[in-house]
Design brief:
Blueprint: H1 2-24, H2 30-34, H3 36-43, H4 46-75, E1 82-85, E2 91-100, E3 103-111, E4 123-128, E5 133-136, E6 141-144, E7 155-156, E8 164-169, E9 173-180, E10 188-193, E11 197-203
Antiparallel strand pairs: 1-2, 2-3, 3-9, 4-8, 5-6, 5-10, 7-9, 10-11
Region (Disordered): 23-65
Keywords: Signal
Biased composition (Low complexity): 31-48
């Protein structure tokens, strides 16, 4: 009888241990739950990786544009309507004749002679304005430069007397002359410089 009790107690203890082991088994589940974490960690970097190619693809284009634009600007030729040789081996480009209101503005660029190394020589040129005028091609009327109240000619860059244009420098120099505007029925004019010559049939823009 005593042995039966011991046997029952022993079996109960075994069942108790097995029951405890079964109850403690669930804590082993966390390693399985941690398994998906690497998959999320791998998917997270995919978004920045996919966004990188557009940035790197546009960078070379923008960089090359920044390098090429100044070169292209330097290679653009001067947009001249007519060109003539000027004093001291300079070149005179007439670039525009435009009417604004009742005033005609004629613009030209004086380019100094170039040296063998590609640099410009120093240009020191004075152009008297007394005989500068234009001819209205439609009416054959001669028109002289405008003058202000002090009788200085309306031109730029003037010298100190206000009677001549002074072109002084070692790079192309832009100068302007202002005349009374021709009528709208006159599409072209001929601009006369006493020291350069005549630019004939210059179109007038409005």
């Amino acid at each position: 009888m005593h042995l039966k009790k011991l046997t029952v107690v022993a079996l109960s203890a075994c069942f108790g241990l097995s029951a405890c082991q079964k109850e403690e088994a669930p804590p082993a589940a966390p390693p399985a739950s941690e398994a998906p974490a690497p998959a999320r960690a791998e998917s997270a970097p995919q978004q920045p990786v996919e966004s990188m190619p557009p940035a790197t693809a546009t960078a070379p284009g923008s960089g090359s544009n920044l390098i090429r634009e100044p070169v292209a600007a330097q290679e653009q030729p001067l947009q001249a309507i007519q060109t003539k040789m000027g004093p001291k081996e300079s070149v005179i480009h007439l670039t525009s004749a435009k009417v604004t209101g009742q005033i005609l503005t004629v613009e030209f660029v004086a380019v100094p002679k170039k040296r063998g190394d590609g640099r410009y020589e120093w240009l020191n040129l004075t152009l008297p304005l007394k005989n500068v005028s234009y001819i209205d091609d439609a009416t054959a009327k001669k028109v002289s430069l405008l003058q202000d109240d002090g009788e200085a000619y309306m031109a730029s860059p003037l010298n100190g007397t206000g009677k001549s244009i002074r072109l002084d420098g070692h790079s192309p120099i832009t100068a302007t002359l202002k005349f009374p505007a021709p009528p709208e029925t006159s599409p072209t004019i001929s601009v006369n410089f006493s020291d350069i010559g005549s630019f004939d049939g210059v179109p007038v823009s409005r």
